[in-house]
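User: Reviewer 2 asked us to show a designed sequence for the structure in our supplementary figure. I'm pasting the structure tokens here. Could you produce the per-position amino acids so we can include them in the response letter?
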């Protein structure tokens, strides 16, 4: 009996596991048998969801518990008997037959008389192959269920009337199609859309080259795995994704509840990488037409600027679906295509950090200025947005599904009647008198607003005895509030920092938290007065120590090296680790503050710019910063990126090592600081470059390494400079360093103030006008 039992068990194992064999006319797949992909990642066979009595043919990840089914053949036609098999006919039809040989499910005829077979590929794709021509006659990747695997795609083909979508299981026991669907829209640019029945449920926002603009932070921690290919002329498009973070197993699925999820497996567990919708504001049109859903911890609806609830009664009941209506009629009437000029002309209110509305149209304008002018000149245009990676989008209908994010998102310019212009910084208007300097507390979240009388009292009415110093934008005072000392930065009317830079500084720094960044407590705005309240830095700025013949002695080499590393860590946080991805654009010694322990803190974010997702480069027609610290591509072409900050850091590093100012240093025959650093590195590996007042408190190898790093950072070509992560690795390890090329030495200048460079291009001729700031 034991021998018989062993033989029966062996036969069961042999016939239930067929390895990577094919399904052909003489070898069907029966209940109890499975077919594996060659690499062993996927398995095809019969399964019963959650131990139900119904049997389905499906594909799942092999040797993964609990079982994750990624495709089902007979979704709405289960096998209810104990016998069934999956076979293939000579005409290329893959058929599921019951015990009576009746067809339960079929792929349909492929119109071939040749011999065919079906096989499961390493991608998880089940294909039917013509044995003679090798042509693929049918594949599961073109007949998706609730899951998309790498190399499969959601797609549409308008001429052929095809729309490949994901549909969820009806329940966890029933794989038949549920009420939701995930599709790719034929808009330009396209976007992902989840429908509930025929109604929109969630949308991704338009595709912007490497990301979906309506999903904040979706690719903040990895290179975007998504690929979108759209051919407008042919009426086709596809959306697919690659493996995540080099993990072998990953998938996109649409759940029974209508959620799109991305998961990956580390060999032990599944990790949820992304889910949407994840907030009540993510639900399509939750605040109605011209409504704005504010995506905070307690989401709420409000009307867009210049609009009021259509039904006050419904809004009091927290039923926002009726939306909002315009409070003041526009001067530009779409019906008559006429527009009023002068003080009564329509204006545009600029909203930041938003998911732009649905029902957009792509306009082929070349730049943001043309986008603005094009919308202004079209009376039916209600809003516009110029989005990096897309270009110009315009809206000619009501604005639906607009969401306010805490960060990320895009800028949307909303058309309003001029009477809606209240004192506010967020307006675009050709009239200078329309640009006001007042700022309302509701315009910036997460920051304290102080009364002017409180600040005057704390600074003894801005007494000169309380003045700490003079910054690039105005004087800095010491004040003493109820909870201790803070520093007040008072912006002078002639400082050059306008409302835009001021708002930029408070909105950015209020959201940044790092031990090497200065902390902002609040601000105060009263008429022309604009003040920032920072944490008090008892040791003022780095330049006060570094360039003072007495104080510089307190900065021995170990302390200078600590400061260098601290600045690099702060820069890494700005570039890579914060949720905002910030380019500082004015990194210099006077913008490095020192606390009581001489810990460096990066300050002055008035010129900083924020990037989205994996986007790390931009350009500007108005170049602002400090001569000597500006990278070549920024100073003369307006291109700024992580690498332009790295250039500034390189200059800063050389200043800290030498104790000399970039703008005031000359050596020998008028050599600049960078030129002298190169000469010292070539001759003594940088030893002669060290501040001579430091004595013998230094480590020669460490100093020489820092000089070399400084020279690498100031390379002329951005690609030859390290990124911030590589920079910190260079400073904190003993890894081999690349040899720097001879830098292109900057022109010598004795001016130490920041500059504003307006780059004006006319007929291909670029002229740079440099002005003191």
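Assistant: Here is a per-position design you can include in the supplement:
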């Amino acid at each position: 009996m034991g021998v018989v039992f062993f033989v029966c068990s062996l036969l069961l194992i042999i016939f239930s596991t067929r390895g990577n064999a094919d399904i052909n006319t003489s070898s069907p797949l029966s209940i109890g048998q499975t077919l594996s992909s060659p690499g062993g990642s996927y398995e095809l066979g019969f399964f019963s969801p959650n131990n139900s009595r119904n049997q389905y043919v499906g594909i799942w990840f092999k040797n993964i518990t609990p079982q994750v089914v990624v495709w089902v053949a007979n979704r709405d036609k289960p096998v209810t008997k104990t016998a069934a098999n999956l076979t293939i006919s000579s005409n290329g039809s893959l058929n599921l037959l019951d015990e009576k040989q009746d067809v339960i499910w079929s792929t349909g005829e492929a119109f071939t008389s040749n011999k065919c077979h079906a096989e499961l590929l390493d991608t998880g794709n089940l294909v039917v192959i013509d044995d003679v021509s090798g042509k693929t006659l049918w594949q599961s990747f073109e007949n998706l269920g609730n899951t998309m695997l790498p190399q499969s795609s959601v797609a549409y083909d308008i001429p052929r009337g095809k729309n490949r979508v994901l549909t969820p299981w009806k329940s966890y026991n029933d794989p038949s199609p549920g009420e939701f669907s995930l599709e790719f829209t034929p808009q330009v640019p396209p976007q992902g859309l989840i429908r509930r029945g025929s109604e929109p449920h969630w949308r991704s926002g338009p595709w912007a080259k490497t990301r979906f603009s309506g999903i904040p932070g979706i690719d903040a921690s990895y290179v975007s795995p998504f690929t979108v290919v759209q051919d407008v002329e042919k009426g086709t498009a596809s959306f697919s994704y690659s493996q995540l973070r080099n993990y072998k197993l990953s998938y996109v699925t649409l759940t029974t509840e209508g959620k799109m999820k991305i998961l990956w497996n580390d060999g032990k567990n599944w990790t949820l990488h992304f889910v949407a919708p994840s907030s009540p504001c993510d639900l399509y049109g939750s605040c109605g037409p011209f409504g704005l859903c504010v995506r905070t911890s307690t989401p709420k609806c409000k009307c867009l600027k210049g609009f009021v609830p259509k039904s006050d009664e419904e809004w009091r009941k927290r039923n926002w679906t009726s939306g909002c209506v315009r409070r003041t009629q526009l001067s530009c009437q779409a019906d008559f295509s006429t527009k009023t000029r002068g003080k009564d002309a329509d204006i545009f209110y600029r909203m930041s950090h938003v998911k732009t509305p649905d029902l957009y149209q792509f306009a082929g304008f070349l730049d943001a200025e043309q986008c603005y002018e094009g919308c202004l000149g079209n009376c039916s245009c209600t809003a516009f947005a110029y989005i990096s990676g897309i270009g110009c989008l315009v809206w000619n209908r009501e604005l639906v599904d607009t969401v306010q994010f805490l960060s990320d998102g895009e800028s949307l310019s909303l058309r309003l009647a001029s009477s809606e212009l209240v004192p506010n910084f967020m307006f675009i208007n050709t009239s200078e008198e329309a640009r006001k300097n007042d700022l309302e507390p509701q315009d910036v979240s997460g920051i304290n607003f102080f009364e002017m009388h409180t600040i005057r009292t704390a600074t003894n009415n801005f007494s000169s005895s309380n003045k700490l110093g003079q910054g690039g934008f105005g004087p800095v005072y010491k004040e003493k509030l109820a909870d201790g000392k803070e520093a007040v930065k008072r912006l002078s009317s002639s400082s050059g920092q306008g409302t835009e830079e001021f708002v930029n500084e408070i909105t950015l720094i209020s959201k940044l938290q790092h031990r090497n960044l200065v902390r902002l407590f609040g601000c105060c705005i009263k008429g022309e007065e604009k003040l920032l309240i920072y944490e008090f830095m008892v040791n003022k700025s780095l330049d006060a120590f570094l360039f003072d013949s007495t104080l510089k002695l307190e900065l021995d080499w170990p302390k200078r090296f600590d400061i260098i590393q601290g600045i690099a860590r702060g820069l890494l946080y700005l570039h890579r680790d914060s949720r905002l991805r910030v380019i500082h654009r004015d990194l210099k010694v006077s913008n490095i503050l020192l606390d009581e322990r001489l810990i460096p803190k990066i300050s002055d974010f008035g010129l900083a710019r924020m990037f989205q997702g994996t986007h790390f480069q931009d350009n500007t027609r108005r170049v602002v910063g400090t001569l000597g610290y500006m990278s070549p591509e920024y100073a003369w072409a307006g291109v700024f990126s992580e690498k332009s900050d790295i250039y500034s850091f390189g200059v800063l590093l050389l200043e800290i090592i030498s104790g000399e100012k970039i703008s005031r240093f000359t050596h020998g025959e008028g050599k600049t600081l960078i030129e002298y650093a190169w000469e010292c590195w070539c001759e003594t590996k940088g030893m002669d470059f060290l501040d001579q007042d430091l004595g013998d408190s230094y480590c020669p190898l460490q100093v020489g390494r820092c000089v070399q790093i400084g020279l690498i950072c100031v390379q002329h070509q951005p690609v030859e400079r390290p990124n911030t992560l590589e920079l910190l690795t260079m400073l904190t390890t003993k890894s081999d360093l690349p040899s720097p090329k001879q830098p292109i030495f900057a022109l010598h200048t004795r001016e130490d103030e920041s500059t504003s460079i307006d780059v004006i291009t006319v007929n291909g001729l670029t002229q740079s006008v440099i002005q003191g700031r």
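For the response letter, you might also mention the following. The chain is about 15% helix and 30% strand. The radius of gyration is 32 Å.
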